[in-house]
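Notes, Module 5: Reading structure tokens.

Key idea: the token line is not a picture. It is a compressed description, and you learn to read it the same way you learned to read a sequence, by spotting repeated patterns. We will look at two proteins. The first is printed below with its tokens.
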Amino acid sequence: MTAQYLPVLMVTLGALGFMAVMLGLNALLGPKRKAADMPAIMLEPFECGSPPLQTDNRRRTAVKFYLVALLFVMFDLETVLLYPWAVLHRELGLFGFVELLVFMISLVVGLAYAWRKGALEWH
């Protein structure tokens, strides 16, 4: 039973070791300047070359951004779930094909609903 967990333990130890090495290299090779030595302009947040907005953070955000994000996640998951089916489609036979059709039809219905409601239109 413990032999089944050995690969998981090895990957976990490898990831922790990699993290420790990267943190150690950052501490050794990273910049050593203190915040008190820096000019005030260097302590401000940097946003893609434009000055940061000085507005209220509690302003309303359009729901459209969240709809686009949800649709992206939905179709990204579709791609992730289609890959294993494509690898095993001969072994799954007719049952696997019917399951894929049910999955794809549910996604197409969801896409049609989002399209009719105008979630894909950007103004």
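Here is the second protein, with the sequence above and the tokens below, as before.
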Amino acid sequence: MAQLCDDCFAFGGELMKSDQALQMLADRLDVVVGSSNVGLRDALGRILSADIRSEMAVPPHDNAAIDGYAVRFSDLAAGDDTRLKIIGRVAAGQTADRPPGDGETIRIFTGAAMPPDADTVLMQEDCREEDGYVIIPPGIKQGANRRFAGEDIAEGDVILTAGTRLRPQEIGLAASIGRTELPVYDSIRVALFSTGDEIRDTGGDLPPGCIYDANRYSVAAALDRLGCAVSDLGILPDDYDVIRYTLANAAENHDLIVTSGGVSTGEEDHVRAAVDVLGHMHFWRLAIRPGRPLALGQIGTVPFIGLPGNPVAVLVTFMRFARPAILRLGGCRFIEPSTYRVRTGFPIHKKLGRREWLRVRLEPDTDGNPVVYKFPQDGAGILTSMVASDGLVELPEDLTSLEAGAMVDYLPFNEFG
């Protein structure tokens, strides 16, 4: 298990571009957890900790791709019907008693092992049977409808690589070579809390001037989706001593600490001061909207991510910065989400030098082509905009304006699953 150096998040100077920030995360972060074996049924969403090499070929034998008749191609007439005697029948899971001889064929079904010497399979719908014989029309190509051993996986192939986040298809692939377990990284133990005297937990009273804590629940859900083991430490008051004590304790038995709010430079933003005393706080001066302030640091070797207080900014910065950092800490390869070029249904104007993310819904135009439309309110506190939208439009730093109908980069929310 690797340990982070004391200054993996350190950065100073001018405003940093998003791409530079993401590259720094990719370069500086390493795995902070151990690994263990889990059964296939428990492997979904986990991150593979070692390459998986196949000790067998898949399929393990040549087999029929359809229901029909296995023949030797050399027995077929070139330009006329061929009449062959049916000498046997082989279904999936069975093998033929003997190979077909001169003028013979074997009835075969999808997935069944090819009889020795047979090299071609005729589709049953193209043939007809008469008194124990089959009549085969001309025109079939040699090797048709035959699957070869190792066509999917050759013996010795690396079928899955370390750092892969396991989806149903990877688990199925592992099962296809007979694996019952997979080596995966342990779940990241994340301590999570919100700060603020005005924050109240759901289900309780809401005094004047207070708001319910949406951020902790949305971040906890996002962490759960990433397979983290989350310790919900609740809501901390704007009290330096309480925050410092909680951070110090959390660093003793967690792999990561994530907070919401309290990382700006106001008099009541005590998280920053506490992290500075216990370790290092690095304010990343990112030229982004929404999202500032975004703080990253360490308490000893335990990384710390301080998300903003506004609910939209929390979700956007989690998706674009916290999520890749957390996956990397958990052993995942650093992979950017896929973007898609789509047409805008609105004009765009933005500040030069800043990367922005707009909340948009996706709708087809009259020709069925996808077009994105901006949510009418773009404040960082409008959480309904995230529910009503399908994804984000990402606008690069050098862009200042676009007319309606221009092409932009679209990031669907399902890319962040």
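Summary for the second protein:
- The first helix runs from residue 18 to 28.
- The two ends are 26 Å apart (CA to CA).
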